[in-house]
Amino acid sequence: MTRPEFISAALALLFAVSVTSGQVNSNRQVPYVPIDPQKVQDQDAMTWDDYRPIPGKSWADPSLKPEREFRMALVAVDFTDQPFVMTLPKGSDMFGNPQIDPVSREAIPQFYSDFWLKPSAVNHGQTINGYWMEQSRGRFGITLLEAFGPYRMPRPLWAYGLNEHRQNQSTPDGSTARYRMERDIDSLWKADAGDLKKNYDAILRIYAGYDETGVWQEFGEMKFNSRDEIPPEWGNPDPDMPRWVPTRYVEWTSWKAGQMMWGLSSIRQGENSGTITHELGHFAFRIGDNNNNPYVQPYRRAGSGPWDMMDRGSFNGPGGPHMRWVVPPIAGASMPAGLMVRNRLVNEFITEDDLITVSRDQLASSAPVTARITARAVEPLPGEYAGMIVRLDGAEPHDRTPVTDPAADPLSPGTPRFDYYSLEVVQRIGYDSFCPDNGVLLAMNTDGEGRNGGPNQFNCFNWVIDAHPEDINMVDYVKPNGEKVMRTVADYRQLNDALFHAGLNSGSEFEYVDSHNRLHFYVLDIHRNEQGILSYTVGVRSLDSRVVRKAATVSAAVATKKISDEGIVEFVVSGDDICRLKAAITGQGWEARLYTEIAAPAEGNDVMVPVYVSASEGCSRKAELSLAVVSESDVARKSEAKVKVSL
User: Fold this and answer.
1) Whole-model pTM?
2) What is the tens place of the pLDDT at every residue in 46-56?
3) Domains in the chain, start-ordered, CATH in brackets?
């Protein structure tokens, strides 16, 4: 324990007190501000003004050549009952599209080829090539999107669109819809241009109209109070038929919305679809979906939600998921989230060398491990990593999470089957601009893929640890009659506030304990470089280890000759350990507050710990401030320093 030091200075008080007169001077008040406050922005409130480019890099630049070039053809088709939306006068169709001036039918194929591949004012400089180049750091990109068409399909739109989700009997002519459009599209293309499939890695089939996934809700239960209130213009052309059809997730939508097709991993997309990047994840890398069914009961929580493109982070973009009906697709789903560590590894966008990897078994007999992690949108900064992995190794079962019943607990991750934890940093720059928060993303992951068991199970390989597992309690939409419909526990936006933050009073959490898998995770500090790139110091220890490399000690900072004008007293914590801090102050009317409760000094790298000191009017003139540090691994290892303060 260090000898108490005496410091006499002008103290910045909660209601700042003048040194000479001792009178309250509220104009000098300096507030306590957390070091890393959580600032969650909902998808509905986002606009293109929220986009922040990556400093010094434009991955959408067509002159940049990827290591793996991906060549695609774009084949555009329309129907006798559905022209291309983009050929119609601005805002003239039933859905309120198109959002920009029309183009001619003959120009449609090239229009969409340019929209998806060439940066322009229309697409706000964002392309599918730019997304994949950013995620892969130039390892993978779309170098060709050759346009073909337009072609007129031999059957009306509804003949293809009503062939799924119990809609087959809802045709206007009494037939049974059973057609998949790919065969007809490819026949038209082959008759016109020859057998060219072998020249391309994938075919993007753009069809006139909409993906049902982007309109079933907005032009169904969000637009009409009930299926009986659907007006004739939104119903079946046969007036004797119901004006509604069943749809994938719920009992009904309007016939006009239901006649549209769902996009599939064949990369079959309507004019409103912004999920082409997601479908390429399936097609080019064979990664499955990681998303739940948010509409069916018993509800099951989402896996990774807005934080990964292979879950409903594919819906990220201005205006959120209820703006995916826009043509051209410049709103919801136009700016998908980046890929989490697990998927970047699977895609070989990062390697083990980019990560710091530890094992649970190693941690059980070693000291805690700490590392600095750089925001995933950029290359790791010098001395930092793209993420941390903690393998769940040792005796079987590797994942020792207790079995819970998803039918009774919607927050259950299902069958305990995860292989490792990952920690990574999300910063709202680049394609992550439309993620809802900055911070540390903690998740459990599987090496392979598979379903998570229980009722309404789904393929799940990322399970985000939610720093706020309680209901986010936000409105999903408002019906025409004014009734508010809340977001269910299965809504992916329940994970908007899932990130962990550094320090105290952030509005989030800075630590997570998995007692069953015997691990304790920490978010230790936040950093920004001169370009504003975000990184965090994170740590992990085993609950079974008492190993301490060098116990932490604390002393008053040598530079501290007085309390700063901000009311800050600094202490120096030395050693090589993760330790918990506790500040206390004696004296009437005085208060001491820490900015962080955890410090992690390393050998040769001391940590400065500021303590915010304030006092109220009428306080005693003198007080004694102390800071204690206690090892997280061994509570018997502790140190304390004291300083005396006065007005």
Assistant:
1) 0.94
2) 999 999 999 99
3) 5-31+548-646 (2.60.40), 62-221+261-286 (no CATH), 342-542 (no CATH)
